[in-house]
Amino acid sequence: MTDTASPTVLVFDVNETLLDIETLAPLFARVFGDAAVLRDWFAQTILHAEAATLAGHYLPFGRLAGGVLRMLGTVRGVPVGEADVEELRTRTLAMPPHPDVVPALRRLAAARFRLVTLTNSAPDPAVNPLERAGVAPLLERQFTVDAVRRFKPAPEVYRQVSDALGLPGPDFCLVAAHHWDTVGAQALGWAGALVTRPGNAAVPALPQPDVTAPDLEALAEAMIGRWRR
C-alpha cells in the first residue's frame, strides 16, 4: 500500500474489533474456574476455523465455537453441557460494543468513509448482534463469511466485499484487532488498519498494517490524517 492510495471503504471485523468479547468471561470463570480460559477458547476457535477452511470444510462459526468449548472441557477435565454451549451462544449474541466504537464510526462517516463489516460469524435468524449493540445504523452493509463458506483470511472472503461493491482492492481498508486478518486483506491489495485491543499486537515477521493504534478513536484519527488530507 502506498501513501498515494486512499481507501474509500473501511471494512470492519466484528468480534473483538467492534464488540467486546470480554463480556463472555463470566461463562469461562464459572465453567473452568478461570476467566482467562476465554482467550484460549477464542484463539482455538480461530485456529480451527482456519484449519477447516484449509481442509475444505465449513460449518457456522457459532457451531464451531461451541465445539471448541466442549473440546476445552475434555482437555481440562471439566464437564461442558448443552446449557453451557447455549449460554455461550446467548452471551455472544449480546456482546456490547467497545466504548470507542460509536464515536469512532461517527467521526469516520463524517470524514466521508463508507463503513461496512465483515465477520466470521454466520447470520443468526433471531438476533443481529450489531443491531442489538446499536452499531448497525452507522453501517452501509454487513457481510459474513457464510456467503462464500470459507473463513478469514481466505481471499474469497474479502473478495466478496469488493465484488459486491464493484470497487478495486486499493479502495478498501480492513480494520481489525487481529493481525492475521489485516494480513489476509493486504494480500489482495487492500490497506490494513490494526487496533491493538488488549491481548493483541502485530507480528514483526509478517507484513505490517498501514495504520496501527491502541483504540478505535486513535485509529480513526490516524486514518483520517493519512487518507483524508
From TrEMBL:
The keyword Hydrolase applies. It comes from Lichenibacterium ramalinae. Pfam families: Hydrolase. Keywords: Hydrolase. Its EC number is 3.8.1.2. It is an enzyme of class 3 (hydrolase). InterPro entries: 2-HAD, HAD-like_sf, HAD-SF_hydro_IA, HAD_sf, PGP-like_dom2, S-2-haloacid_dehalogenase. One of its GO terms (molecular function) is (S)-2-haloacid dehalogenase activity. It catalyses: an (S)-2-haloacid + H2O = a (2R)-2-hydroxycarboxylate + a halide anion + H(+). This is (S)-2-haloacid dehalogenase. Belongs to the HAD-like hydrolase superfamily. S-2-haloalkanoic acid dehalogenase family. Catalyzes the hydrolytic dehalogenation of small (S)-2-haloalkanoic acids to yield the corresponding (R)-2-hydroxyalkanoic acids.
